[in-house]
Amino acid sequence: MLNDTIIVGGGFAGLAAATYLGRARRSVDVLDTGKPRNRFATASHGFLGQDGQNPVTILETAREHLSAYPTVRLRSAEASEVQPHGDGFAVRLANGETIEARTLILAFGLRDVLPAIAGLAERWGKTALHCPYCHGFEFSDRPLGVLYRNEMSVHQARLIAEWGPTTLFLNGAILRPEDAEVLSRRGIAIETEPVEHLEGEGSALSTITLKDGRIHQIAALYVAPESHLGSPLADHLGVQLIDGPLGPIIQTDANKLTSVAGVYAAGDIARVPHSVSWAVADGVTAGTAVHRALVFG
Q: Which of 25, 106, 136, 147 can pair with 265 through a Cys bridge, CB separation 3.0 to 4.6 Å?
């Protein structure tokens, strides 16, 4: 059967798109591997009406609500290959099955690659963080750190200083003199020595140990990870990519349409910056744009 849409990814963007298409009574398959990008966080902040809720719990509730729409099918499945087929697209699943649809919405999210520092990965999403708007308030007025990754880390450190006393850990990188001057005026400390490891009880963070043995007291470390598209489907389709500050993202127009007709992209893979609220908004945009294309295209 030729569906109206296949949505690859059942996170915040994918479920938002599916909700609007379901309300439009369009046939939709949502493919989800159950690994949202923010699954490491215990709470999601800043999402209206859901502040402080566990992101996995929010998604579970959204799936329950989506079950009210009979034309939407949620599938625990991984899309491994896609190609144009007839009047739409054929998506091959990891289990060997092939499904078809007139349009596609890519919402499979990003995969974060963290620096290889001992103690960092197990604290990711809890005390090793990316977004201060999502997780800054909880660490207000406590010692904070930013791990240098590229020149954008200087911008990040200046922002993080809004929430508490901040140190930029260069981790062996060399800072431009003009950046050092800007940070000094902002009252941000600079630590040049490489970071050896992070320590704290459980997922808490209490100290950062440097390679020379010195120890910094710290409550949270902000890291801008390297990010990769969470699926090879963008390459299979040949959609246009652009360079984002953390890695490549899919280029879309205002309606979330990619460079390939009939293929839309929503969420972190197709925008900067990132948050649950923006992912949901982009999903709504993509879902309603697909519906209009099905009606008027």
A: 106
Residue 201: burial class (beta carbons within 10 Å; 0-12, 13-18, 19+): exposed
Mean pLDDT in residue range 88-99:
96
Beta strands in the chain (DSSP E): 2-8, 28-32, 72-76, 79-85, 88-93, 98-106, 110-113, 128-129, 144-147, 166-169, 189-191, 195-199, 207-210, 215-217, 220-223, 226-229, 241-243, 248-250, 263-265
Superfamily of structural domain 2-112+226-296 = FAD/NAD(P)-binding domain (3.50.50.60)
pLDDT at 151: 86
**Amino acid identity of 138?**
E
pLDDT digits (tens, 9 = 90+) for 47-77: 999 999 999 999 999 999 999 999 999 999 9
pTM: 0.94
Q: For residues 188 and 271, give the distance between their C-alpha atoms in angstroms, rounded to a whole number.
A: 29
Q: Which amino acid is at 210?
A: L
The domain spans of the chain are 2-112+226-296, 115-223
